């Protein structure tokens, strides 16, 4: 385990997920600090994980070897600008923000100095150890920095390195944002079932267990394609065929492609905005 001091600037949902993974995997809470303007989330983090907390971003960043930037993209510029007085040359920065390029962080309105910064894209299932993250390291990042980033991002699940920064936008569409797609699908199933007369709680229990079962079938049968697994459910002339045909007639795959393209386009637009 590393002895690097890690600070999180922004103590929201994603920081909590990553901190939870780190502490649960044995990282010393004494080496972790979270900084946030309001204190409620800090108190909860301190109570749950015994980490250090502060409302002073500058002090937290100054004391850290690794700084995880975890505020909303809209706030990133002002948060970085307030850290300009620090010498960041010996620190590793990790950003989890969507849609802000790695190069942008060195600009005069951001950190205003060359930095060692790794861009990552986690997802909310990190909270329960089943996260999936993408990571992009620019050319100035060494193996030791990559190793600590990998340790942080795999503490709550899996992580992959991407070769090109543009691929991070595909990671957003496939893994960062996609838990919401699955939740939307389950939402729609529960809504349909309740409209057909089933009690909400029962409908949720049925839909979520089917989702879990389908996810585990994918994981535990790497030799079978998703298409084959689908076909194994679909009896000739049976019920599944009717349901699946309905999705195909409604162009589900075209809709999914459009949704992912729109997700990527938004990430690209954010890169211009921020
Ligand atoms: N949610 C997701 O699924 C994913 C999110 N991301 C990225 O993670 C980042 C954070 O998202 P998420 O955790 O969901 O957002 P949250 O809103 O949950 O967390 C952001 C935190 O930043 C805090 N904050 C606001 N201003 C400052 C400041 N000046 N200094 C320090 N902290 C500040 C907020 O505090 P307060 O509430 O007190 O204002 C809040 O606790 C975003 O950039 C997003 O793109 C990446 C992958 C997945
Ligand atoms: O919606 C967003 O912008 C963030 C990034 C991926 C998931 N949530």
Automatic annotation (TrEMBL):
GO terms for cellular component: cytoplasm. It is an enzyme of class 1 (oxidoreductase). NADPH binds at residue 57. GO terms for molecular function: pyrroline-5-carboxylate reductase activity. Catalyzes the reduction of 1-pyrroline-5-carboxylate (PCA) to L-proline. It catalyses: L-proline + NADP(+) = (S)-1-pyrroline-5-carboxylate + NADPH + 2 H(+); L-proline + NAD(+) = (S)-1-pyrroline-5-carboxylate + NADH + 2 H(+). Residues 165-270 form the Pyrroline-5-carboxylate reductase dimerisation domain. It comes from the Bacteria. Its EC number is 1.5.1.2. Keywords: Amino-acid biosynthesis, Cytoplasm, NADP, Oxidoreductase, Proline biosynthesis. Pathway: Amino-acid biosynthesis; L-proline biosynthesis; L-proline from L-glutamate 5-semialdehyde: step 1/1. InterPro entries: 6-PGluconate_DH-like_C_sf, NAD(P)-bd_dom_sf, P5C_Rdtase_cat_N, P5CR_dimer, Pyrroline-COOH_reductase. NCBIfam families: proC. Residues 5-99 form the Pyrroline-5-carboxylate reductase catalytic N-terminal domain. This is Pyrroline-5-carboxylate reductase. NADP(+) binds at residues 9-14, 70-73. It is found in: Cytoplasm. Pfam families: F420_oxidored, P5CR_dimer. One of its GO terms (biological process) is L-proline biosynthetic process. Belongs to the pyrroline-5-carboxylate reductase family.
